[in-house]
From TrEMBL:
This is Metallophosphoesterase 1. GO terms for cellular component: endomembrane system; endoplasmic reticulum-Golgi intermediate compartment membrane. The chain crosses the membrane at residues 355-375. Its cofactor is Mn(2+). It holds the Pfam family Metallophos. It is a multi-pass membrane protein. It comes from the Eukaryota.
Length: 394
């Protein structure tokens, strides 16, 4: 066989190996992984009262993810930023294309350095976020605030909070209603109960929303118009809300959490700190008493967990969406109707799988190089030429 033909054949094989590994790891791998996911059937839902079995098109298709942690200018290495943000962008865009959710919730910690980033760096982070999580007009994107976005309680101030709310054009505490379903968004960073100005403002808004929801329920049950005590209240669909927030409600630890996305076994028994890892007992009880939610969805811990509060209020902790925080990111698919809901979890490709594919491709390239050396000149001659070239370079 002519020498140039062998070289061309080796070059083609190299291109196929390198290009194939790159295309699979950076694009293709997300499709078979997310194709395994499907919207849960609401007929198998929990929390329903006489509305189970309604057709899927009457339920809200909600995608819930958390803790994207876009790296900033201070602590983010450029390669780490490039790698993990590309992973989230491809995962999100593939999920949108395959699953077509009506609404997407991100449960806080959108940015990693929002608590201390300058205005210039903040604008750069926001620009990258809008590029990564771009979406069509058919999908509504709703973002909650987290401690990394505006700082922990002792770091947050009006400037950071209003900067965040301005970017996403909405208050950090509000109700989003879709197809008769109430989604309650809570600024959990401000629930320390110490009377700080932001805390007072958020609690005042929560009390108002609680009154509005309770009046909506009472008005529906009485059927005789708006009650005198509810004059001036805003009416919502008469259903208990789905409550979404960044901090989980109070729990001692993750000791009772199981599943492949739970915290590592060595971390599950570590005690949580109130007002840092989870909300305080007092704030948690107030939220449950005010709203009596049929489901709570939270983030912050970067790991998955299911908790039942007071034996009737289920909470799901949503794991981080980023490889930076865990090897197996995931998100929640929720089918929600006014009287029922169903949940399923969708796992993304594991970072270790991608690394394994690249290592395998590298091993193949090494074998091809050795085979080429043996074919063309013999292994000893190839090594001697390599050593000679190294000697000349010195």
């Amino acid at each position: 066989m002519p020498r140039f033909s062998v070289r061309w054949m080796v070059a083609v094989v190299l291109i196929l190996v390198v290009g194939g590994a790159f295309f699979f790891c950076e694009y293709l791998i997300y499709f078979p992984t997310i194709l395994k996911c499907a919207w849960p059937k609401i007929s198998h839902a929990r929390g329903g009262e006489g509305i189970d079995g309604r057709p899927m098109d009457s339920a809200v298709r909600a995608m819930v993810l958390s803790d994207t942690h876009l790296l900033g200018a201070v602590g983010g290495h450029w390669f780490d930023k490039l790698r993990r943000e590309w992973q989230m962008e491809r995962a999100f865009q593939t999920a949108l294309w395959l699953l077509r959710p009506e609404i997407v919730f991100i449960l806080g910690d959108i940015f990693d350095e929002g608590k201390w980033s300058s205005q210039k760096h903040w604008e750069d982070d926001v620009r990258r976020f809008h590029r990564m999580f771009r979406h069509s007009t058919d999908t509504e994107l709703v973002v909650l605030v987290g401690n990394h976005d505006i700082g922990f309680h002792y770091e947050m101030d009006w400037f950071k909070l209003q900067r965040f709310e301005k970017v996403f054009n909405a208050s950090s505490t509000r109700i989003v209603t879709k197809k008769g379903v109430n989604f309650l968004l809570v600024n959990s960073v401000a629930l320390h109960g110490d009377g700080c100005p932001i805390c007072q403002s958020v609690e005042k808004e929560l009390i108002k929303l609680s009154r509005d929801l309770n009046c909506s329920l009472q008005n529906s049950q009485s059927g005789s118009g708006v009650m005198d005590s509810c004059e001036g209240s805003q009416l919502y669909p008469p259903t208990p809300p789905i409550m979404l927030q960044h901090y989980p409600l109070y729990r001692v630890s993750d000791a009772g959490c199981t599943g492949q996305d739970a915290a590592p076994p060595e971390e599950r028994h570590l005690l949580f700190r109130e007002k840092y890892d989870v909300l305080s007992k007092e704030a948690s009880q107030r939220l449950l008493q005010w709203f009596k939610p049929r489901l709570i969805l939270s983030g912050h811990t970067h790991s998955g967990c299911e908790v039942l509060h007071d034996n009737k209020y289920p909470e799901i902790s949503v794991p981080s969406f980023s490889w930076r925080n865990r090897n197996n990111p995931s998100f929640i698919l929720a089918s929600v109707s006014p009287g029922s809901y169903a949940l399923s979890k969708c796992f993304l490709p594991e970072e270790s799988t991608v690394i394994g594919v690249y290592c395998s491709a590298g091993a193949c390239l090494l074998l091809l190089f050795l085979a080429h050396c043996l074919w063309m000149k013999g292994l000893l001659q190839c090594l001697s030429l390599c050593l000679l070239g190294k000697h000349k370079s010195l």
